[in-house]
Write a structure and sequence with these properties.
transcription; WH_DNA-bd_sf; about 130 residues; globular; 2 domains; HTH hxlR-type domain-containing protein; 7 helices; Arc Repressor Mutant, subunit A; three-stranded antiparallel beta sheet; ArsR-like_HTH; mainly alpha; DNA binding
């Protein structure tokens, strides 16, 4: 029998449902330092299309992970920032980042050429 839409095996399964795609954690990572406009987020989250970014931002807003602030200006100015709930993911993402950095080092020691643009796990764990 399938689980109901709002029933999860454990906390990890709910976390994965909210963070679900490869893009959402990256968006959150870039917002940890402060609010960003849509175009700046797209520049920082390499490889994401404008359409997918907007979809992901809408989902994160619906899950109350981010806030969307619209400024009454011409041209329109929209900024995204983390909510308190979004900031609460910092340690989770910091642990993931640290684990990935350790794996990259191990793989490099085994002859693979893994390059990480950011080594930033420490900013997440403070």
């Amino acid at each position: 029998m399938a689980k109901a839409k709002n029933e999860f095996t454990n906390g990890a399964s709910l976390t994965l449902k909210i963070l679900g795609t490869k893009w959402k954690p990256l968006i959150i990572c870039h917002l940890i330092d402060g609010p960003l406009r849509t175009l700046e987020l797209q520049r920082r989250v390499k490889g994401i299309s404008a359409k997918v970014l907007v979809e992901q931002l809408k989902q994160l807003e619906a899950d109350e992970i981010i806030d969307r602030r619209v400024f009454n200006e011409v041209p329109p100015h929209v900024e995204y920032s983390l909510t308190t709930t979004g900031h609460s993911l910092a340690k989770v993402l910091g642990s993931m980042s640290y684990w990935g950095e350790q794996q990259a080092q191990q793989l490099n020691n085994n002859g693979q050429n893994i390059k990480l643009e950011y080594l930033d796990h420490e900013k997440w764990t403070k």
